[in-house]
Amino acid sequence: MTSHASSPRAGKTQRYSRTAIALHWLIALLMICGFYLGWIMTDIPGFTPTKLKYVSWHKWIGVTIFALAVLRIVWRATHEAPPMPAPMPAWQRAAAHATHALLYVLMLAIPLTGYFFSSAAGVQVVYLGVLPLPTIIGPDHALKAALRIAHVALNYTLLALFAMHVLAALKHQFVERDGLLARMIPFLK
To answer: Which of 3, 49, 61, 160 would be a feasible disulfide site paired with 34, CB 3.0-4.6 Å?
Structure first.
């Protein structure tokens, strides 16, 4: 059911649907922004107005990523991905599938650990400053510490997988020249 920009009979690369491409790039951009904000806000000493603003933006990005990730997973479950290049070795296909699955898990787990960390710290998440999200767990100092560690560890895991994902895509584009990257970047051939 994937919409293709080209026909396999024409010898061109099949692409992901426009929706899948839009969700991919929007979530990637938000993850980069969220990671960057998380990185710089933790280096601001004390609790300044700037740090409060960055923390709020970071949380809003996390909630947005979670919602878009759920939508993306539903879309992916109901729309077949274009096939990988035929000459790709089985181990690379397996690695790609495993990496994508783990990326999906992290797109959900990272915002959840951040949300629970905020709750355990006794701070309610108010999406975009207007929509208070329910507090699922109460303040808990020990849980707060564990969730902070989990949130940070998952983010660094995401950073490593993100780097592998980008490097693999670039390898396919410039070394293998198999058209794999064109499935997700509409203007590539």
So the answer is: 61
